[in-house]
Amino acid sequence: MSVPTAAADSAICAPLPVLGGDVLVPLVTGGEVAYAALDYAASAPALQRVWDDVAAYAPYYGSVHRGAGYLSQLSTDLFENSRATVAEFLGCREGDQVVFTRSTTDSLNLLAAVVPADCEVFVFETEHHASLLPWRDAAVTYLDAPRTPQQAVATLERALAARTAVSPGGQGSALVCVTGASNVTGELWPVRELAAAAHAHGARIVLDAAQLAPHHPVDIAELDVDWVAFSGHKLYAPFGSGVLAGRSDWLQEAEPYLAGGGASRRVARRGDGGVDVEWHTTAARHEAGSPNVIGVYSIASACKALTEAGFDSLVAREQSLVSRVRAGLAEVPAVKVLSLFGDEAPRVGVISFVVEGWNSSHFAAALSAEYGIGVRDGLFCAHPLVRTLLGSDPQDQGECGAPESEPGETSLNAVRVSFGAGTPDEHVERFVTAVKELVRDGARWNYRTEDGRCVPAV
Ligand code: PMP
Question: Cys-Cys link to 407, which of 66, 163, 230, 447 (CB 3.0-4.6 A)?
Fold first, then answer.
């Protein structure tokens, strides 16, 4: 994976217009302030361009792949053209398929459902649960957390070599699942090197690009990964669609992920009373049911918007925000930023930290209630990773996002701030100031725990 630095001469662009920039939220201390959305890693705001494209299409909305009417044909064209746009955005190879899903989680579950029966899966324990958990029917090897990108490659090499040693030559299929950018530390993983290691040992690799694609170009051919998965709602297209793109063979050899209309080409009663089905061999095989044309179109619109804005200048802008936040946090000794690969590791705009003496839920609640800043606290659906980074018991896994202690007590959770193409400088400046003030002066309000969340005690 290349370092997320923009080309030397790339100018820092202005933030891309997003929805919600002028939404005012109340402060417990009185008055209102424009909401600072700093939780892009969970869901990014919609790009204005995406919203405008969807609004322009909405009157023409019609059934996809079904109707004979003009709007049905138009919608079907829009749907299939969106597939082509996404394929281009990802640099898909000849023969690759783009399957539309609901999300990254759905995409990886789809892949898990089509892996060959003898497939061994290799996944780092540091993955998001969406990458860690779907491989129910496969033999899964969980790889220990590496502390450098080189160690990640070496760990994978070792695990794959051991597999070859156990069944020399004639081993069955194997799949490696790896994240491109961590949703906890923002750090980039050495995807190209991991792909080379996987292929050298006859394994395939799927890239979880949920956090990478919104921040960095992802080129499936250049990275030489077999599949890429990502979600629309993290790519400024919050209408409920996702993508699994890549090799078609496993997808086409497997039974459809969902059985039903759209996936079937021909269905007929058999003489013995049963039903014969001929399934599609295109992406439609795994897209049964009426597709989410708005969701799919919004992803295509976002892909175009990011490409047209120029990833180099988007990356340059985001890296300047990363530097600003990291420098600001470094000035506060009570703040510890979580990192697997160290300070110098290339990273996207996702930063998690703990504050000495603070429960993270309390800290996040104060950022919201007293500064109008939306961040996230918790274990970020990557429990083993956060536990490793915090150095606390990896077995003690609370619910995703649930605070584990009362306001005021030190927390086992972390706070995550994340941003991207729509983030104005003011949001990160306000965040840095807020962190400093909260650490220096304490919260100005009282908080209590309600339904597992820390909230202002009104
Ligand atoms: N992988 C990573 C790295 C993520 O950050 C997330 C979302 N937090 C997912 C997968 C799952 O994405 P979704 O919730 O859209 O399925």
Answer: 447
